[in-house]
């Protein structure tokens, strides 16, 4: 956790002994502009724009986090007390200014705290399940290999902008440099127990001045992957003060725990499927006039967990009287989702994309488009349809 020397919060969440021994800190985020007119900075950072890091979450206990799924927030283990039912945490999403009235808020329903946290294995991570999903929330994928544990990282949070400072109203951002394990361990006696396989260091070793700080705990350290997309490589964990020379920030090495995080997410309600994955069927299926329903199937495989709450169903049906048609999506378990009712519309053809909340359905399996012509005199056929997860 990210706090300055001997912070009360660090003491409360279970790593007080380690931090107190070395004058440590648990990290947090920036503070509001001071009366002198100096713009506050995430200890060396700048203010982030609304929507710049849309997956960022502020947690009511004074920590940060990132949306892992539409209903799960990834944060630090030291930010929570234990695994189990928990309705005491409020998550704020969708804003950079915490006083922005457009903020989306959810209370927690359950917490999963890493069972290896506080052991020689390390593992300062936790998942917070929200009382209901934030439909369409932006998600931050996590690194599953150490390939991105290098270079320059981005950090963001609502913590203090100086050691011992107050929390920030505004989301702040900064860039921090990767520091190898051996250099980090030798930087100061504080780091002598650094767990090479579980922790990663970052900051300006020579000069200090740039760092996460108290209140940034649990927030993500992230960078662009090989495809240019944001990926989370670290979780703000702890450090010796804020932005001191020769005292970098310490972050949970996310890739080490990626499999454990995914397993916990599966138990809590499923991991996200790869965004934008599309399956389609382009085989024509004739629709009989005022006849029985016809079906067109799509076999989905290779995805993980449940379908998204924003499953896209793209339908292209050629028909001389679109109002004759009733269209349903049938999930692999037989559940039916109505896409279109019959109507008096004489407009020809149906060429549109429907959005279905299919988050209760397993993604993999055979999905079916069911189409029925319920009036006489007009005919047509299913030309092509697609599912985009």
TrEMBL record:
SMART domains: Tryp_SPc. Residues 273-389 form the P/Homo B domain. One of its GO terms (molecular function) is serine-type endopeptidase activity. InterPro entries: Galactose-bd-like_sf, P_dom, Peptidase_S1_PA, Peptidase_S1_PA_chymotrypsin, Peptidase_S1A, Trypsin_dom, TRYPSIN_HIS, TRYPSIN_SER. The keyword Hydrolase applies. GO terms for biological process: proteolysis. Keywords: Disulfide bond, Hydrolase, Protease, Serine protease, Signal. PROSITE patterns: P_HOMO_B (PS51829), TRYPSIN_DOM (PS50240), TRYPSIN_HIS (PS00134), TRYPSIN_SER (PS00135). Residues 42-266 form the Peptidase S1 domain. Residues 1-28 form the signal peptide. This is Proprotein convertase P-domain-containing protein.
